[in-house]
Design a protein that fits this description.
Layout: H1 3-21, E1 34-46, H2 49-52, E2 56-66, E3 71-82, E4 94-106, E5 111-124, E6 131-144, E7 147-157, E8 164-176
Antiparallel strand pairs: 1-2, 1-8, 2-3, 3-4, 4-5, 5-6, 6-7, 7-8
Length: 177
């Protein structure tokens, strides 16, 4: 099992396990049983992806259902476009549309940890069709009122070779909970 997948699964299990441990902690209750939000994404390619692509930009919509006072079961739909490095890449820009499910755990009233997994559909400017592959992320952030900000590490299974295409995402948006 590759290291990225192991870390993602471990984070999800750790989040679920610590939920019952912190059940005695008093938290304010917003009265809402849902989480809705949207983010702007700044996606910095790392590893081999950074050799052929520049920093990408994207958007993301997110929804969730409250499992308990600290945990939400979430679903996200996102889009990120990575511009190519003109002199090194014959494929043009690459865009990734992702559909993921996951967990968001509020360690405190305003600090959260998150893990997601799903499918990412990658498309470049040369190939006429998109390819769906495993995609996952782990990260965390802060949430004050309507404003949320987060830092995530995302990995997407490569299409034509072994390994993952990785990027670090800075997300800034709004969320209601």
């Amino acid at each position: 099992m590759n290291k990225f997948f192991t870390v993602l699964v471990s984070l999800l299990f750790l989040t679920a396990a610590t939920t019952s441990v912190n059940a005695q902690t008093k938290r304010s209750n917003t009265g809402k049983n849902y989480l809705l939000g949207a983010n702007l994404i700044l996606a910095n390619p790392v590893g081999t992806l950074s050799e052929d692509y520049k920093t990408g930009f994207g958007i993301e919509g997110m929804g969730g259902i409250k499992a308990n006072d600290q945990l939400y079961v979430t679903a996200t739909l996102g889009y990120v476009n990575f511009p190519n490095e003109e002199f090194y890449n014959n494929f043009g820009n690459i865009s990734v549309t992702s559909i993921k499910g996951g967990l968001r755990y509020y360690a405190t009233e305003n600090v959260f940890l998150s893990g997601n997994a799903g499918v990412g559909f990658a498309k470049d400017e040369v190939e006429p069709r998109s390819y769906g592959r495993f995609i996952g992320d782990i990260g965390g952030g802060i949430h004050f009122g309507l404003v949320q900000a987060g830092l995530y590490y995302e990995g997407r299974k490569k299409i034509f070779s072994e390994g993952f295409s990785n990027s670090v995402h800075v997300k800034l948006g709004i969320a209601i909970r």
